[in-house]
TrEMBL record:
Origin organism lineage: Bacteria, Pseudomonadati, Pseudomonadota, Betaproteobacteria, Burkholderiales
Protein name per its UniProtKB record: Peptidase M48 domain-containing protein
Domain of life: Bacteria
Keywords attached to this entry: Hydrolase, Metal-binding, Metalloprotease, Protease, Signal, Zinc
Cofactor: Zn(2+)
Matching InterPro entries: Mito/Outer_Membr_Metalloprot, Peptidase_M48
Amino acid sequence: MKKMLPMLFFCLFCAQAGAQVPATGRWQSLSYSSAEVNARQESDYYELIRELADQGQINRNPAMLAKLRDILASLIPAATKLHPPSADWEWEIHLTSSADIDAVCFAGGKILVSEHFLLQLQLSDGEIAALLAHEAAHALASHQHEELSEARLLRDAPGNDLTLVAEQLRSDYRLQLKLSALSYQHEAEADQLGMQLALDSGWNPADLVRFYEKLARLPDRALLSRSVPLPSARLSMANGMAKYWASLPAPWHGSVAARATRIRHPDAVAMR
């Protein structure tokens, strides 16, 4: 029996891939390859875009879309430093007029933002940067990948195929409830990692804090109340990180003034 243990441990290790969240170093157990998850999420993203396009609810405001692309482009160099594999991603962002979506990021850097949400909060450029940095942080931290991996372990249906797991996760409220603690952790982590990403990209800390102030004024619309940190906790985090950043010597925050005077980043890349 003892001779079987090394092989058993090897097999268990092979069944679960490991990864670490950028900056925090938190260890993740992942059941699928990144390429597999990114491909699946990309398919889901384009399916959603097509549905919204059929309803006439996609990219109806070219000026706002151009602004979103510029702001996202300003975050990409710092994102690549935080998570080097993201250098190979085809970052993409679209704007929807649907009020059913606030903002969402799919694996591989595919983002969708609601114009209704932007107008509701009356977000400035710096505040939009906070929003996009938060969404990008979900992808940089492989949150979509981790959620699917955990769903695979918790689902009560046969089969571990990624497509089956993704479809059940999208429609099964009980499975979503089981994952609410993980969702809470993901949101808190994306808040912190997103703040670091925006700060590393040179955005004004005061603008980032104001985004969380505005977010705190919204009614709680989370499907599961335990899946999102309290607004007061999110605002406290933003204030704490901004104060810490301000205490650092140059050049750590030396690019804030430059960011305040222009949107387009010198390293901006072409995006769809």
